[in-house]
Design goal:
With about 400 residues, the protein is mainly α. About 55% of the residues lie in helices and about 0% in strands. The protein has three domains: about 170 residues, Hypothetical protein af1432 (Orthogonal Bundle), CATH 1.10.3210.10; about 120 residues, no CATH class; about 70 residues, no CATH class.
Amino acid sequence: MSVGMAAPRAPYACDPDSSRGRLVAEPPSRTRSPFRRDCDRVIHSTAFRRLKYKTQVFVFHEGDHYRTRLTHSLEVAQIARALARQLGLDEDLTETLALAHDLGHPPFGHAGERALDACLKEFGGFDHNAQTLRVVTSLEHRYPEFDGLNLTWESLEGIVKHNGPLTDRGGAPVGRYREHGVPVGIASYDKTYDLELWSFASLEAQVAAVADDIAYDAHDIDDGLRAGLFRIDDLKIMPLMAEIIGTIDAHYPDLDDDRRGAELVRELISHFIGAVFAEAERNLSAVKPQSAQDVRQQSRALIGFPVAASEEEAAIKAFLYQHMYRHKRVVRVMADAEQILFDLFARYQNSPDHLPPEWLAGAEDENKADRARRIGNFIAGMTDRFALTEHQRLFDLTPDLR
């Protein structure tokens, strides 16, 4: 089958008619599958709307054309749907996971996550996947019969495990969680609703994860070019980029740099989608899973980059780390952004009455750890501009972040 053609539903796809259901039982929708209903709930959530003013690298007021968490999530969903369609997976579940994957990110991108992790170190730290789970299971307050969004088991599993298992079958943390353990929010929720942390997630979740990598690399190149942190010809130090740029220049010798950059991003996305699709076909042909549960029982992910593309993708990340994430302008702004969150966390800890009234309800008898987590939840939900506004309200001097 050629790339771009829609495949019939595959036996290894998640079947909405066979969903394991929701923690709180609900009557089925008359017009939507369970996974489509999940996706709609994510789109209509407050946390999803806030992604508009949460940034990846550049703070919200730097320009209208830089990516935000919202535009990034939409781009991830587009790439993920394309792959899901080619592989015969459930597109609604794939889109749900793509759109939900960043709901737990705090303001100011990775700088905000580092700051909150440091503030909460004594109380289990901060993990954005765990925070996303909190958002969709408790922090959203939109429905009369439950907190959160009451998503299906398959959506919750994909949110938690899209990057692979968190434990072995005996419950011991693995991979990135081996040193510090499974994040508190995930471990506690798993006791209520077993997400089988030892297994791989569905192919829909695996597709959403690799789509995140593709979108991240492509749009950070685009944003870095737009910001003038590097020039398009600087990218030629990477063989893949040199090849793509060379092809573009051969076809369009008089193209301006803005259009060269846009064409580069398009070709890069197409290249990685094609590579992931080919690798998935090879893996699926070798394993021949006959159900979504067969996928979960595998000893490795079946969706990912082949070796050559993985090396190309790693080279892009290394370039971006050196030329963008560690650029002196970005580092300076992000250091100031971290300090804003440190200041806010300390102020709320010392003076809880500075929290909004709705965030103080039920806080009278909570212990130090619960109060810290409450403050962390409040800050994690902030947009960049609200965090700045709060800091200006509570402090005499607020960094400009420009």
